[in-house]
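task queued by scheduler; priority normal; single chain, no ligands, no partner chains; default sampling; output format set to structure tokens
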Amino acid sequence: MRCRSRGSAGIHGETGSFEGARSALELAQGDLEHPYNLHLKIADFGLSKEGVHSLPKSRVGTVMYMAPEVLRAGPSRRYDGHKADIWSAGVVLYVMLFGCAPFDDPFAINDKARLDTTMLQILRCEWAAPVSIPVSPECLDLLRGIFTRDPAVRLSMAQIMGHPWFSCGLPPAALTMNTVLVRQQTAQPIPYEQSVEEVNAVL
């Protein structure tokens, strides 16, 4: 979650957002030569969108990871991609903590019933932590702040990074890592194969 949040904060600092957190994350298990070099990596920008000139209005990705406002999205109902990404990151965190999804009905009689129940749970923000897997009150508080139906009230990336559960044991330099990297890249720009105009035309 920490790597995911720092990575997401870096992306959002570049005015982009991405949808479908499951496809946007690759859980790297390390390589055989360096088994202790474990990193969580953001791997796919196939569903990315620039956030400066327009708000997202599309509904793409895996339903289980979608925020309520994404499920309700349409041509006249746009949403804040940053806040929707926070919800999706919360689902990823929940799955890593408990080994199951916060919004799901694995006992549904068929796939359609399961999908319908999952969407209803998301829209109503109905979730609970399994009592069989104890987690700290701080962790539950963070999840409650993320799984908030109203995106205006949902925790921001800055609030997550300042949360006691997130920051416990986190090296101080980790919080400024993105700022340092962006500053370095700005000083020595990476040559791109496409111009800014070409990228904007796609977005």
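post-processing summary
- DSSP finds eleven helices and four strands in the chain.
- The first strand starts at residue 16 and ends at 18.
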